[in-house]
Design brief:
single chain; 482 residues; Immunoglobulin-like; Rossmann fold; 2 domains; ten-stranded mixed sheet; three-stranded antiparallel sheet; elongated
């Protein structure tokens, strides 16, 4: 972080100055970051800017504090770039509005009761960090609404269309950066949208996870409009999981058997699985059972390997993947995003922070989570129903861990290195011991997503503790890059 860039201190009185009289001051940028108050349940429309005041103010207020001065000053004389701007009789609370960000020479003269003077000059930097949060559900805060469905008026979001929550790791990382350095402030804009992909959300319009009839403009275009030619200090980006159809892959393994072998079939235990997993959900039990309904399954959607590697068959036109999905298209999708970041935003790609997706397939002992292939006893059934991914066997889980998540992580890292992005790769390590079937999971289990937010969208997304791990990882990566 930027600290003082130069200090000059000199006595302005000759002999006889007051013993111990010395000028010293510090400064701070008043915090701008604020989590906006939640709107009424019927009006959870677009809200993006997490700041106190306008997005781009005309003046930047700085608070100057001379209480580090010693002796018994009677007056505090302030000069900005050589011009006297104020004379104070108290050391704390002088605020000055600078016309723009940048470096300024600030001088403090402290004057004793007999007219003796001492001075200090510093070159300070007025700096507000403009940060945007972009991407998909792991960026938006999916799974952890601001108010969940068990509370009055829940579920409630900062933005319902995108399931955008103030509990998101991106939001919390921005707040941590704000609190870390008093010499800077933070302007944070939250644009991530659940269900988003590189093309369908970042580069093209997107309807959102709960469409309201008005598609959101591409996130990159929105950044350009809101930044309005101001320097962008960071883009926090979570994207790639939906490009390889991760949620569809998970659902295929939940509903099908041997989803990874290329010839899947409907899981014969699905009806009993629904009974185990969906009991005790109250008003959301029917939604859970509908998700696991074998009569509503399209067999083409159970081939998880094909869906992951090359996308969905019905998305091809004349042999071309019009939705650009699957692992085969992911590198070129990242290439397109990189071109837009440089071309549309004109920013340094080293200020892009791409966050990895953690492997949550193991418990606190490193053992794979696994749904049984045979019905256990009653007590064991209750434990399994509470802690395991319904219908996902050990073989399917091992494939997800050693192939799907490994290949996804490698593709993300390779693209980050290629385009000179910061790859936030400590997320996975932080989640170790907190996988889906751990005693202390850091993500939302399938049955819990219905009781927390009334739908299936929050499954296998971080809970508040998990988003806290994301925030810590982003925060540390940001500090390391400064």
């Amino acid at each position: 972080m930027t600290m003082f860039m130069g200090v000059v201190a000199a006595p302005l009185a000759g002999c006889g100055e007051e013993p111990g009289l010395q000028a010293s001051f510090d400064y701070e940028m008043p915090a701008r970051f604020v989590v906006p108050a939640l709107r009424a349940p019927e009006d959870q429309s677009e809200y993006e800017v997490y700041v106190e005041g306008p997005l781009q103010p005309d003046m930047w207020r700085v608070r100057l504090n001379a209480c580090g001065s010693t002796g018994s000053p009677a007056r505090y004389i302030w000069r900005i770039d050589g011009e006297e701007v104020a004379v104070e009789t108290r050391c704390n609370g002088f605020e000055y509005e600078f016309p723009a960000e940048g470096e300024y020479s600030v001088s403090l003269v402290v004057e004793g009761g007999s007219g003796e003077q001492m001075a200090e000059t510093q070159v300070i930097e007025v700096r507000d960090l403009l940060i945007f949060g972009l991407g998909d559900s792991y960026g938006s805060g999916e799974g952890s609404p601001d108010v969940d469905a068990r509370e009055e008026g829940g579920p409630r979001w900062q933005n319902r269309e995108c399931h955008r929550s103030s509990r998101s790791g991106q939001v919390r990382a921005a707040q941590m950066i704000e609190e870390a350095d008093p010499h800077t402030s933070v302007t944070f804009v939250h644009l991530a949208c659940s269900g988003g992909r590189i093309y369908r959300a970042l580069l093209e319009q997107y309807d959102g996870i709960e469409p309201d009839g008005t598609p959101a403009e591409p996130q990159i275009d929105r950044v350009a409009k809101l930044a309005d030619d101001h320097e962008i200090d960071a883009l926090f980006v979570s994207i790639g999981g939906n490009d390889i159809n991760f949620s569809t892959v998970v659902k295929a393994c939940v509903l099908g058997t041997d989803c990874h072998l290329g010839s899947p079939a409907i899981d014969s235990l699905l009806e009993s699985t629904a009974s185990w997993a969906c009991d005790f959900l109250g008003s959301y039990e029917d939604d859970c059972r509908s998700y696991l309904d074998p009569d509503a399954i399209d067999l083409d959607l159970l081939d998880a390997r094909r869906i992951f590697e090359i996308g969905s068959k019905d998305e091809y036109v004349d042999g071309v993947d019009v939705h650009r999905d699957g692992l085969d298209d992911l590198p070129s999708n990242y290439d397109a995003l990189a071109a837009a970041i440089v071309g549309t935003l004109g920013m340094d790609p080293a200020r892009v922070y791409l966050t990895e997706i953690p492997d949550v397939t193991r418990d606190e002992f490193g053992e794979l989570c696994a749904w049984p292939t045979e019905l256990p006893g009653y007590q064991e059934t209750l434990r399994i129903a509470a802690q395991q991914v319904p219908g996902v066997t050990e073989a399917e889980m091992e494939w997800a861990s050693t192939y799907v998540l490994t290949e996804l992580g490698a593709a993300m890292r390779a693209s980050a290195n290629k385009h000179r992005w910061q790859f936030v790769d400590s997320v996975n390590a932080r989640f170790a011991g907190h996988g889906y079937c751990s005693d202390v999971p850091w993500l939302i289990r399938l049955q819990n997503t219905f009781s927390f937010q009334g739908d299936a969208n929050g499954a296998i997304h971080p809970n508040p503790a998990g988003y806290g791990a994301y925030a810590d990882a982003i925060f540390e990566a940001f500090l390391a890059a400064q």
